[in-house]
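Postdoc handover notes: sequence design on the structure in folder B. Input tokens:
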């Protein structure tokens, strides 16, 4: 067992890769993890991933949506499967310099397009507002998907073609 001085913090480089510490009769074991890098600022190049597309959304369609949020620096393409570069998985990856943040979910081409990138603001799945998650949502009512689609459809660059089958939800109202 290693005895640590716990009244201060060690520089990261001096921290051991694993630890086994006893403090006030309680034993703690673990290993060192690399600290998370800081979230990127708007205007920095970042990698963006559209996940779980099931090959129903194509890279040119992703480009058509995401070019409105920033400048594309690496064209969208299906990601290589781990250890099998000749096989593609259904996630689409690209790089861009963002002018504004991208919502985590967009109604694209009749599918829910799930977008992920490091530093992306969290969005509530209940009210679709930024800054909290569903389990911490204090809104009494659930915002319907159709209402969210309506809000997105009012963005100046969104066409009915970009919404696909979701555009039918707008006709029902």
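Designed sequence:
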């Amino acid at each position: 067992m290693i005895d640590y001085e716990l009244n201060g913090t060690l520089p990261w480089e001096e921290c051991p890769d694993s630890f086994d510490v006893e403090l006030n009769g309680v034993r703690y074991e673990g290993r060192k993890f690399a600290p998370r890098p800081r979230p990127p600022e708007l205007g920095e190049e970042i990698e963006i991933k559209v996940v779980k597309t099931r090959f129903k959304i194509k890279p040119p369609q992703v480009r058509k949506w995401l070019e409105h949020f920033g400048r594309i620096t690496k064209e969208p393409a299906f990601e290589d499967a781990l250890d099998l570069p000749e096989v593609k998985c259904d996630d689409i990856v690209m790089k861009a310099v963002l002018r504004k943040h991208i919502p985590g979910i967009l109604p694209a081409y009749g599918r829910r397009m799930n977008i992920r990138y490091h530093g992306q603001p969290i969005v509530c799945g209940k009210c679709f507002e930024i800054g909290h998650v569903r389990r911490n949502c204090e809104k009494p009512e659930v915002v319907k998907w159709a209402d969210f689609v309506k809000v997105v459809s009012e963005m100046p660059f969104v066409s009915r073609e970009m919404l696909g089958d979701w555009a039918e939800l707008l006709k029902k109202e």
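Context for whoever picks this up: The CA atoms of residues 153 and 159 lie 7 Å apart. Don't rerun without checking with the PI first.
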